[in-house]
Structure of tRNA-2-methylthio-N(6)-dimethylallyladenosine synthase:
Amino acid sequence: MADARTPKGLFIETYGCQMNVYDSERMRDVLAPLGYAPVDKPDDADLVVLNTCHIREKATEKVYSEIGRLRAHKERRIAEGKGMTIAIAGCVAQAEGEEIIRRAPEVDLVVGPQAYHKLPELIARAARKTGERLAADFTAQEKFDALPARAPDGVTAFLSIQEGCDKFCTFCVVPYTRGAEYSRPLADVIAEARALADKGVREITLLGQNVNAYHGGASFADLLLALAQIEGIERLRYMTSHPVEMTDDLIALHGQEPKLMPFLHLPVQSGSDRVLKAMNRKHDGAFYRDIIERVRKVRPDVALSSDFIVGFPGEREQDFEDTMQLVRNIGFASAFSFKYSPRPGTPAAAMLAQIPDEVKTERLLRLQALLWEQQTAFNVAQVGRVLPILVTGDGRRAGQKHGRSPYLQSVHFNDTAAQNGDIVSVRIEAATQNSLSGARLARTPEVA
Ligand code: 5AD
Ligand code: SF4
């Protein structure tokens, strides 16, 4: 079996949500003691991991076409006497593991999202060509208990605190692929956050499919408060949250805790009450608007983000117009929007009134045009302001640094002195749809 004395190339390709980004980092941590170090392309990799997403059709299709592409790399490496282990991880692995093993002989092993701690064993078995090639039958608790210490590679990090979901929105596979709602114990979360702070992390984004449903020994708001006490942690964020879990204490915290960043990703999915009901979202448009109003009252500069689905079964033009109206009323700083994609086994996939693809496409284009307009307007509104920017690395050009605004915007600014992890004052001079640029202020009191 490989160990630290025999360096091996690791190439992880990540699809889907932030949760998968976190999981990929953790797989890298699990594999480091075996001698695996990241490489830039699959041709240099002894082990390729596809960390897959099952949430929409396209994401699943991509997995099979990527496996096809990897076959050529694998054959080339075998011809050179090097070999390549191909592992499929993530939600497609969980949902279709046995089928992948049947359909794709070049895949050596399949590992579900709660079984990453089993990777070393599966890799060793694959090398010996003996035993199980599939590990999917574990709980989140088993996984977290067995994972090694974090090895972050920057000043920002994700921290998974909650996995799975019991909400059963009728369009969504998560309750089936990621399983029942599970919250990590408070002490474990705090210990992981402290370890990240000790290794130079300044900004933590708490992750969960329903992150604000957290109940691992404290309320979600109390967890945030506890994390804000950790020395070195300057900024806290969270995603993805559910509107019905926006409790009074969490809303109040947005006005009280300066380390909690003024950015809220709160998916609404649709602006139509009929559609929200059919989606089993457990809230209507008025409920969502009320939460936004209350958050804005305590934190007027909060930037809002959401997920939207267009073309859900039965969505009429008027329902779609209700979504557009909600977007116009609220105003979003960023958003993700998708065409509804029927997922086998979910209730919505069996609904009769499926919407033709052309209609979905046409609605998506209209919605995205509006959302992009709002995102650009939000960015342009920062021009002239001085923002506290967390320095994350070097910029594109010489003499530039790169960082992140409180509103999660990417910022390039002129400066050479700032160190990664500093929070510096930057005057914003220009904005595009996707980023800001400016210059660091000289000799001004730094903002926290
Ligand atoms: N079709 C389209 N979008 C979906 N999402 C979840 N399931 C589906 C589906 N079947 C979107 C939702 C969710 C985001 C993570 O993905 O908007 O919030
Ligand atoms: Fe899926 Fe709904 Fe759960 Fe979010 S709340 S993970 S959309 S079932």
The radius of gyration is 23 Å. The chain has three domains: 8-138, 142-380, 386-440. The CA atoms of residues 67 and 298 lie 49 Å apart.
